[in-house]
Design brief:
It is a single chain. This protein is of the alpha/beta class. It has a single domain, classed as Phosphoglycerate mutase-like (Rossmann fold, 3-Layer(aba) Sandwich). The protein is built from ten helices and six strands. The chain has helices at residues 15-18, 32-44, 46-49, 61-70, 95-101, 103-108, 112-117, 125-138, 149-160, 164-168, and strands at residues 6-10, 54-57, 77-78, 143-147, 177-181, 184-188. The protein has a six-stranded mixed β-sheet with strand order 3-2-4-1-5-6. α4 links the parallel β2 and β3 (77-78). α8 (125-138) packs across α9. The longest helix has 14 residues, at 125-138. The two termini are 27 Å apart. The relative contact order is 0.22.
Length: 189
Amino acid sequence: MQFPTIWFLRHGQTEWNAQHRIQGQLESDLTPLGVAQARDQARLMPPILAQGPACYVSPLGRAQKTAEIALGGAPCTTDPRLAEVHAGVFQGLTKTQAAQLRPDITAACPEPLDLFCEAPDGEGYATFHNRIEAFLQSLTGPSVVVAHGLWGQVLRGIICGLDRAEQAKLPNEQGCVYLLRDGRETVLR
């Protein structure tokens, strides 16, 4: 399936990212480094925004704050489909605590995408994937999307034709912009 051009921005580092704590759909503020990463994205955005793309942002605070900085006040539509995967009972735990709670799951799921999607009482991969695909299919033109790391791995994987295992291995950089066009990804820095 062909999708419009998308510029994807992952939110900047949060306090919980720095602590290796599983956020999922819980809130955590940007660190000073996270604010600097959003400013790095802001330096890349003027020629992109000059093209007049639609702008979409996750409802979660870390993405909202990143969009505010990186997009310099450009109007954005908040879309609940852009929220990070719900990581069930693992939300709020460090990865060490999750391993103590469910060593069977953490041993079988070394990649964060798999760990979060296999969390008890969580959203699960199929529902998460379908939510992202529904968002993609709703786009009618070039779009800027500010969301989350695992959300972005699945988005980028769908566009580039990757399976779940390949999606889980994608890098999750902050402070850059992923240009997704014609089934390919280019990282803008």
